[in-house]
Design goal:
- The protein is globular.
- It is built from 17 helices and no strands.
- It folds into three domains: about 180 residues, Growth Hormone, Chain: A, CATH 1.20.1250.20; about 60 residues; about 210 residues, Up-down Bundle (Growth Hormone, Chain: A).
- The protein has about 500 residues and is mainly α.
- Keywords: Antibiotic resistance, Cell membrane, Membrane, Transmembrane, Transmembrane helix, Transport.
- It is found in: Cell membrane.
- This is EmrB/QacA subfamily drug resistance transporter.
- InterPro entries: EmrB-like, MFS, MFS_dom, MFS_trans_sf.
């Protein structure tokens, strides 16, 4: 194992096999995180009943993970650059496994909340290393295929969480009830730890960097001030201090930018590598990723509420309804980066935005046409159309954002990419209070609940379609073709290191 950047394109057959094993390991870890973000929602009734958790504690069980995860992503990415991506990945997956065990063995709601915070923090160490390891391990001409696989994993994880949570809770394995949704991570985590230590090749920034502790404090404070009121605002009645906190977060993040500029000029070891924003593909892609996160944050939450509360479906029925969507995302993601993007470039992503918007509008029409009698098979067509659109976006977008990023900053770039996605999701969750719950009355009779939730769902879909239109326009700022598809023609001779562009 080496401690500096490797050149994967010169690797022999044995090394080639090792890096594909390494890819499978880090992709499994990414899938585990994606599932854990959504799996808890399905099990909330069981946690309330068996653990005696209050409504406020339930909010912290879900929000604690998101807060710790989002606040730690940039720091986790930078730690990988400094101390080695393999090392930090193994620490992250090991800590994530321990935290999962503590969640499953929690003796009271307070212990479960604390364990979820720890789990989110460990995920913040683990997840940024996934894209960093891919970026450092695979040459430019192969990354399209790899990011296609990553997109498929994202699509699968987005829907598998609720389905897996429904199955585990309903099966009640060994009488564990909700605990099984956390304990299932143990064998996966242990296997990832053992195999990762053997097959992942170490990589880090080629020059010595130091951890920017002031930057860590500022970025953590700024993100918490922004995300905490968004996550908890509706339950607390949108208090004044929440708006003050969100406004103050902009001041803190502005202070972070000013400090990071001075830090970069002084010793070249900032937490946030501001030079990344001079990379055209990265700067434009970050904007698209943030707005895309908003759309997904709105849709997935209101979709779950619509099926389980509006239509009265069981968790298992709702989870199975999402299978066509998951399959469509996975298939389209693989095709987009391997066959379509090399030929059509940016137009594939823009087509994805329009296709996804068309699927949303079709879903809106079907919901109104069939009313509360709509069946899962009738939802299949709009979900497949939406899944195809999402698949055309999610894998090529990651590819496009990171295509021109220098390898020594891949950890920082990956952390920023994941952070803005989480921020977008949090903004989307905040908007749900306006576009969904804002249309539902406070006191509904039992016979009013279904129609009210269905109307709120359709109102939300209109907003999601509008956001997809904004994403289509923002995509004009992306490069016409990701850099590696140009490099790929020469990669077999001399793979080029991506360079900064103005």
């Amino acid at each position: 194992m080496t401690s500096t950047e490797t050149t994967p394109s010169t690797a022999g057959g044995g090394t080639d096999r090792r890096r594909w094993f390494a890819l499978a390991i880090v992709m499994t870890a990414a899938f585990m995180d994606l599932v854990d973000v959504t799996i808890v929602n399905i099990a909330i009734p069981s946690i309330q009943r068996e653990a005696g958790a209050s409504f406020g504690q339930i909010q912290w069980i879900t929000a604690g993970y998101a807060l710790a995860f989002a606040a730690g992503l940039i720091t986790g990415g930078r730690l990988g650059d400094i101390h080695g991506r393999k090392r930090i990945f193994l620490i992250g997956i090991g800590g994530f496994t321990v935290a999962s065990a503590l969640c499953g063995l929690a003796v009271n709601p307070e212990m479960l909340v604390a364990s979820r915070f720890l789990q989110g923090g460990m995920a913040a160490l683990m997840v940024p290393q996934v894209l960093s390891i891919v970026h450092a391990t695979f040459p430019a001409h192969e990354r399209g295929k790899v990011f296609g696989l990553f997109g498929a994993i994202v699509g699968l994880g987005a829907v598998s969480g609720p389905l897996l949570g429904a199955l585990l809770t309903e099966w009640n394995l060994f009488g564990w009830e909700w605990r099984s949704i956390f304990l299932i991570n143990l064998p996966v985590g242990v296997a990832g730890l053992i195999l990762g230590s053997r097959f992942i090749t170490e990589s880090k920034a080629p020059r010595a960097l130091k951890l920017d502790l002031v930057g860590v404090a500022l970025v953590t404070l700024g993100l918490l001030m922004l995300l905490y009121p968004l996550i908890r605002g509706r339950e607390l009645g949108w208090p004044l201090w929440g708006y003050v906190s969100m406004a103050g977060s902009l001041v803190v993040l502005a202070a972070l930018v000013a400090y990071e500029r001075r830090k970069s000029a002084r010793d070249g070891s900032p937490l946030v590598e501001l030079s990344l924003f001079r990379v055209k593909s990265f700067a434009a892609g970050i904007a698209v990723q943030t707005v895309f996160g908003v759309a997904l944050g709105v849709f997935f939450l209101v979709w779950t509420l619509y099926m389980q509360f509006g239509l009265g479906w069981s968790p298992l029925k709702a989870g199975l309804t999402g299978v066509p969507f998951s399959i469509a995302v996975s298939v389209a993601a693989g095709m987009s980066v391997q066959k379509l993007v090399p030929r059509f470039g940016r137009k594939v992503l823009q087509a994805g935005a329009l296709v996804m918007a068309a699927g949303v509008l079709l879903y809106l029409w079907e919901s109104g046409h069939y009313g509360l009698g709509i069946a899962p098979w009738q939802m299949a067509l709009p979900l497949v159309v939406m899944g195809v659109g999402m698949g055309l976006i999610v894998a090529p977008l990651t590819d496009a954002i990171l295509s021109e990023v220098p390898r020594e900053h891949s950890g920082s770039a990956s952390g920023l990419l994941n952070t803005v996605q989480q921020m977008g999701n949090a903004l989307g969750l905040g908007l749900v209070s306006v576009v969904f719950f804002g249309t539902i009355g406070d006191h509904l009779r039992r016979d009013q609940v279904g129609p009210a939730f269905a109307d709120a769902f359709r109102n939300s879909l209109g907003w999601v379609a509008a956001v997809m239109g904004v994403i289509f326009l923002l995509m004009f700022a992306l490069p016409r073709r990701p850099a590696q598809h140009v490099e790929g023609e020469q990669a077999s001779v001399a793979p080029k290191e991506p360079a900064l562009v103005s």
